[in-house]
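Project standup — Tuesday

K.O.: blocked on the structure for the chain from last sprint. Re-posting the sequence here as requested.
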Amino acid sequence: MANPERERKHVLLVEDQEDMWNVVAFILEDYKVTFARDFEEGLRLAKRRYFDIYILDHCLPDGSGVGLCRLIREFDPHTPILFYSAADYGLDKQEALRAGAKAVLAKSINFGELKHEVAQLTSVIDKRDVDARQAEITAIIEELASRQMKIAERIERAIMKYLRAEEKIIRLKAEKAFLAAGGTRGDFARQWPSVFREEMRGRRGSGDEKLKR
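H.V.: unblocked you, prediction finished:
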């Protein structure tokens, strides 16, 4: 069963005037809105939780919205940031956009524009999510293939190590019997049957087949 609360877009509003909280919550009634009253609380919430959009005031009691925007961009480069502020001067807008904001709106505008802007900015994320999910799936497939290859290589090395140890034991027993029967070590080295190596290779092949099964 779908969870309506989980499916709602999540907004972080960093605003020191609590009367604006009620206004924004009313305007964005279809969204889940979390409020922060200052710079430090806004940064802490941004780091600890996931949001679909950040709405920042330009002036905060313990810092600036632009400074907060820059810090958020260090760990969250793509989530849209919207400045909703009384500071609507040209330089303030440019500063906010250079810091990483996607849009700047003045608090004096029609409330419908805020709702429209938030809807537009979050819909861009929806479209981007398709490409992001495909990249995620591709990365998972590549990682699984890489791990399977490493496992196969480890199995191959283990088989080779076992066969070398087995050949060494058999060779020692064969050499001991050869020497006990009057042969020399040089003769044994020259006469160590190549057929044995063919036999070992054949056994290795059958071992690989068993592993595949």
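K.O.: great, moving the ticket to review. Strands lie at 10-14, 32-36, 53-56, 59-60, 63-64, 81-85, 103-106. DSSP finds eight helices and seven strands in the chain.
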